From TrEMBL:
Cofactor: Zn(2+)
Domain Enoyl reductase (ER) span(s) in chain numbering: 8-345
Protein source organism: Marinithermofilum abyssi
Family per record: Belongs to the zinc-containing alcohol dehydrogenase family.
Keyword Zinc: yes
GO molecular function: oxidoreductase activity; zinc ion binding
Protein name, UniProt field: Galactitol-1-phosphate 5-dehydrogenase
Matching Pfam families: ADH_N, ADH_zinc_N
Amino acid sequence: MNALKLYGIGDLRYGQAKLPIIEMEDEVVIRVKAAGICGSDLSRYRKLGPYVEGMVLGHEFTGVVEAVGNAVTHVSPGDRVAACPAIVCGTCESCLRGAPSQCIHLTVIGSKQPGCFAEFTKLPAANVLPLPEGIAYETAALIEPSAVAVHGLYLTHLRPGGSVAVLGCGNIGLLTIQWAKLFGAETVYAIDLNPRKLSVAKQMGADIVIHPKKKSAYDQLMAATDGNGVDLAVEAAGSSITSAQVFALPRKGGEVVFMGIPYGDVPIERFYFEKIVRNELKVYGSWNAVSAPFPGKEWTTTLHMMSTGQLDVTPMITHRLPLSEGPKAFEDMINQKDFFGKVLLYPE
């Protein structure tokens, strides 16, 4: 079958890969219909390289069941499905206490086992969810990043009428903006240096956009909130700089949740660090997109909100490309040859 395989930093190739087959009774082989490029895929390509040389990359996707093991009863060949890419052990202390996102053996397809940038991929049956007919394939390809965003918000005490600031309007930030509105936030502030991202943020539900080039995000947010700050600040940029600045945005007694991953040290100036102590902030780290019972309410809630049309991800999608153009798409995204939101790849 055709697939995108990562051999090293900057070395992504379109070519042949081994076709997945049913080997255990609880497995499902899925024909991939649409797959999304994640920021973590770009980091693997640009900075980190593969866990395993020549691994099929990708973990955000949707498709149709091709084959199932003998023990699989909830889906059948021909069914449209969503698929959670996280593989958890189910037996470690974290899994047993109902926190699979903290599984010590947690991995994701596309890292140590073949991913979804291919015509077919394979997952345990527990990871596969029937897809309601009202959800299009391209929409369903964004279920996993949506689950990442809502997983982070579930950690917080965000309530209807609250206020939220989202630092970074990449895909996770944009989904967080829309989820914050679905949680009932009265005012959502979107913060980014890219005006086009801020434009999409407005389409995703942001009430006020902040461009910090000429005046700091902190100064603008304080002016907008009469010096109080917001109930919840979300770091979704994955930047070492914003990972420090985010502490200045919540009100006293407010919350911070980290969804971005800075691939570098985070130096924190005293001004920002003291906000944690003096304002008695609650700080959360959010990892992955699963909870118990696996794969969790992040997935079932996303499916419900997409099926009713309340969660609309279409403004995020900027490119729809054949899988064969994957290597060029990665290079263009790294070199910012165009404005890229969510890029979807379609196996041929």
